[in-house]
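Lipoprotein-releasing system ATP-binding protein LolD: structure, please.
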Amino acid sequence: EAVLELRNIARHYREGDARLDILVDINLSIYPGETVALVAPSGAGKSTLLHIAGLLERQDGGETLINGAPTSQMNDNERTKLRRGTVGFIYQFHHLLPEFSALENIALPQMIAGMDRREAETRARQLLDYLRLGPRAAHRPSELSGGEQQRVAIARAVANGPHLLLADEPTGNLDPRTAEHVFATLMTLARHSGLAALIATHNLELAAQMDRRVTLRDGRIEETP
Ligand code: ADP
Ligand code: ADP
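Here you go.
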């Protein structure tokens, strides 16, 4: 069964009198353990697509299914609950909380989701060790390098054990070598955990390392080699 299925998704915005049809008829399924690169020019609708897939934004038409469950008839609370249990997000900028340590940044979302502090911190420490960031556990984001910050953000995104990982230019802010390292971390974690991952990137070398590549053309998904 697909972790994510986008079925005939449509989304438009209005700009004054003009109507911008950003997503016209999006069909895409991603299965457990599959990594998919979303490569398209700026303005093509990648962020919109990721927000719809992650239940942060509603489509105007079509259906978003998570683990086979249709979500369009759910209310906002139901969608938020489903998102917290199944979806992890990674952005171009890490959005780590500046006043908290790396460990706390990873543990906090789990505590918000109801896990007790000890369990959340144990899980966070395991993730940091796995990513060889153990010695950085007590550091605040400002004390970490750009690549370390982004790897902590990746750990945070997977700490809740999501089924679906959505990333919007996760290496867009990093130099090429650091990008390669951060990306390797992302692939290792995704494959190790059997996640379905949809990763928007402009980096064709990184896209080539994923299982599938898709692009957006005139509001539709096209599979590319
Ligand atoms: P990408 O991530 O591929 O750069 P986006 O999904 O951010 O593309 O945006 C696609 C298009 O939709 C852009 O032209 C953008 O200006 C427009 N857009 C995005 N969000 C809104 C919004 N809330 N209101 C109006 N236009 C929007
Ligand atoms: P962008 O990636 O387009 O620069 P942001 O990363 O700031 O945008 O987030 C886009 C939108 O998604 C914002 O409205 C933000 O509040 C919301 N958002 C980001 N992460 C989460 C999350 N984990 N849960 C709920 N809403 C989120």
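Notes: The beta strands are 4-15, 18-30, 35-38, 61-66, 69-70, 87-90, 164-168, 196-200, 212-217, 220-224.
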